[in-house]
Amino acid sequence: xxxxASPTSSNCHNEQVLVEENLCAxxxxxNRPKQLNALSYQMICGLLExxxxxxxxxxxxxxxxxxxGRAFCAGGDVSAVVRDIRQGNWKSGAKFFGMEFIxxxxxxxxxKPQVSILNGIVMGGGGGASMHGRFRVATDNSVxxxxxxxxxxxxxxxxxxxxxxxxxxxxxxxxxxxxxxxGAEMLACGLATHFVPLRRLSLLEEALHxxxxxxxxxxxxxxxxxxxxxxxxHESAYHRLDVIDRCFxxxxxxxxxxxxxxxxxxKAEDAWISSxxxxxxxxSPTSLKISLRSIREGRLQGVGQCLVREYRxxxxxxxxxxxxxxxxxxRAILLDKDKNPKWEPxxxxxxxxxxxxxxxxxxxxxxxEDLKLPARFNLPDCAIAKL
Length: 387
Known about the structure:
Layout: E1 2-4, H1 9-14, E2 17-22, E3 25-30, H2 41-56, E4 62-67, E5 71-73, H3 78-86, H4 90-108, E6 114-118, E7 121-123, H5 125-131, E8 135-138, E9 143-145, H6 159-162, H7 170-177, E10 181-182, H8 183-189, E11 194-195, H9 198-209, H10 216-224, H11 241-248, H12 253-266, H13 271-282, H14 285-298, H15 303-319, H16 325-335, H17 353-358, H18 380-383
Helix pairs in contact: 2-4, 3-4, 4-5, 4-15, 7-14, 11-12, 12-13
């Protein structure tokens, strides 16, 4: 039986999150299929209240999270955020991200297993709603990306934590280029914990519905029964880890590009290197620089520290005083769709270290405060499955 989630009246009215009750399991279904399940503010608030409610309910042992339609979740509904900011209300955007980051933190510290069924598109905020959970099940249809640098933003939702823990410097590659990964690549690099082929997905869900335990080892054993080793394509970026490590371990974005161009000269006609270079050259120079620093800092920080820092960064982006690249990126990619953003500054060398540093400082506004994360039962790093 499927019943509608009702943590808020607006969520109830729009049916944006559905709840399926199955014995001791609860399945939360993101239900904006026409918008590829992009997270609205109502959805985020609804999910947060549901997670907290079910954590307190002794009858609920396990949470499943999935999307309705061809996407798990294509990200946060940033077009709505941009509309608010254009009306002079940047703090509305900050409130959106603040609530989303709190949801990410609750997922990261959750005391019961969260199984995310990553069937279809998993991008941006969709990564935040899943990567912090213990179990992440990829399928034949999974497509993962953090495309923020092409939008004038940066990989947020705790991405500086989970990307920095991928093998070698693969996280820097994924975060800076916005490259898309399929289910096999997600499993190989650790973004997914399991791979289940589509033909077995409904059987897995049926089995999970019957779980009467919050023991992660019990849940893992059940998922294992439906897994199948995926085929990692010959052209996969994961086969290029040696090149990625050589190039994306460099100190600066300029040095990364220079290293890639050297590789291109040594390996003529290498389409993968050429497309990687082009992805970086099309992205916002400011976004690239703050993203690289964010991921590097994330290597040494817990998930809570990453989210607090990312909140500072995103507030600077919403405020628009340091750069307006986010609004320009949304215009070019999401609104006008001319795919020709005019970045300012337009060159990497024009983005100074001082300019980057400002994104990591407190926001100059008398009413602004750092993100306050809720007190939780677990230390963050104890609750998160190793990537």
